[in-house]
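Hey,

The postdoc asked me to send both predictions to you directly instead of through the lab channel. I've kept everything plain text so nothing gets mangled by the mail client. Protein one:
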Amino acid sequence: MTEHTRRTVLKAAGASTLAVAVAGCTGGDDDSNDESGDESGDESGDDTYEIDAGETIMLEGQVSGWKGLQPAAIEGVENPTLVLEKGAEYEIGWEPGDSASHNIELWDENEDLVDEAYKLELTSDPDEPLSFTASEDIAYYRCNPHSNMQGEIQVE
């Protein structure tokens, strides 16, 4: 290979490498546009879930937080915010997700128990859900001994 041919090959290889590198950098802008579309997704934790009147709400009890089981809209959501219809009847219950004892209580905006009737006893083996009428007094559902297990209730 002559010196002239060798230089031509090296220049061509260098130009090709530079073109690939620049193309890779400019391709990043498309990815950032895709990411901004995902930012409005369900990962924010600010989502609310409208629950139909008469629906049974089931949660999995874990010390780290309640995990939605049913209705399907809350499945897999940690401490879902429930939107309920004022004056409608609901049931809320839980199934074991760990070996700890849990309960469900309905609390007001001051984080006080709304009514003794809106409280299930502490147990590791729940048997029946809590029946209640949605009222503006109710602001949270909570496991009393585990502060991570609290979700918001909005009554409209």
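Protein two:
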Amino acid sequence: MLLAVFLSVSVHAEELTTQPVAWSSASEAMQKGEDLENNRKWSDAIQLYEEALKAFSSDKSLKYGLRRARIHHSLDRRYADLSFQSMLMEAGSTSLLNMYEDVYRNIHREYLETVSLTRYTAHGTESLYMALRNPVFLQKNLPAADQLQPQIAKVRQTLIESYWNRPVSGLSDARNVIASVCELCREQLNLSRNAVILEYVFGGCNTLDEYSILLTPDRYRELHGTIQGEMVGLGIEMKAEAGRGMHLLNVLLGSPAEEGGLRPDDFITEINGTDCLNLSTDDAAKLLRGTAGSRVRLTWQTPDQEKRAGEFVRRRVDIRSITRHAILDQQRGIGYIRMEGFQEDTVQELDTALRALEAEGMQALVLDLRGNPGGLLDTAAAVAERFIDSGVVVTTRGRNANQNQVYRVNGAYTRPYPLALIVDEDSASASEIIAGAVRDHNRGVIVGRPTYGKWSVQTIVRMPGEREMALRLTTAKFYSPDDRNYSGVGLQPDVLVPESAQNRTTFFRTRTSDEINADPDVAEAISALQRRLTSN
């Protein structure tokens, strides 16, 4: 099992496009949210509900709207997943029921909170109830749904009247409940057993927190590749923007995409001749996936509205944690390192960058963790040891004794020079471990904006069988050296810098040192270090 501390929620952060709005009332926000749901803009609806709940935290309609949008978003993603369709929809129903039991056993054993079988099964019932109104689910499983609306309504009503929160005494009883629902759906709708069972398998996980999920084979491989720092593909991060195509948020160093001329802020408009101006992120990703050595032809538009096209060969891409290091102030020896993840090779990459900067005369360091979603817990502790000479850097506490750990450092690799840490609202988990340790050990100045506020640990639990699936479960919370947990609120910087359009961190690898210095966050960090060096 792997212990990970990273931001990986059910909704892709890169898909969210709705800007925060000051709502005059909860009902106004609810109406806007329902409009987004009616247009199947689940990601935007989720963000809207989350923002509205900050102002109207007790509103039950907004809470249910958020829950509903998350379930529909998960359904859409699941049915866009090729491994879900090919490996799970085509599996035997008995093996899927066995999977249902295996998933629950792991949740019961590992999850941070106790989850009853009644609660887990009830959320499966709710997921099926929602699925019977989901266009993607219906298109796949009930192509004649338009002619079956009375029967669908009857099944949904029966789910509420006979199965909603129905007590379940054990796994055999749960199987009987699911079998009964399967028979109901077969008689009324001719809906396949697999479609029903899979809603109980995956939908049951809706009872968990937003960071816990059952990973399909493809999602598990993606996660494993991220942790190991490698992937097969083009090496891009993108989001869909209706009418414009796939907005490139990042292009990985040394990737086929970078070598072929793609850059952040470009928009992919066609994939192998297929117009993708209005595709979802997941649908476009399906077109972009392929085996190593296969080719894909893209058409894209640059920020200057120049239209370009090219052919790319998919291959293995190493995902680097350190994407830029440089001396920004030659006179005072102020170095800069941009870190984008906490992977297996991160510490080695960091040590290499530190040695290179030290060889150039570095006397102080700006460590940029903006947009860094986290990664491996052990890696976070090892990174902290590069800057903190002794003591506790993080503590974890969970329901099980094996989740209660204290991570200490002994100074074997510590650098003593002044440190400025840059964080923002997308610095999460492992990034927050570093920020918390720097704050509590009074090791440096923290610049930027409040961090994300995800102070929990996920364990990756491999599922039995040959399908290469896994559960990502929240199993513990973590605490700073002074025993603080900033879950839901984030850690406040010492120097608050308003967000600016100039904060384009993905561009830093191609910018000059002067251009990086002009970034408001970096400028504040350098000023803080200059004051420290001058006072010394």
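Summary for protein two, as requested: The CA atoms of residues 139 and 305 lie 37 Å apart.

Thanks,
C.
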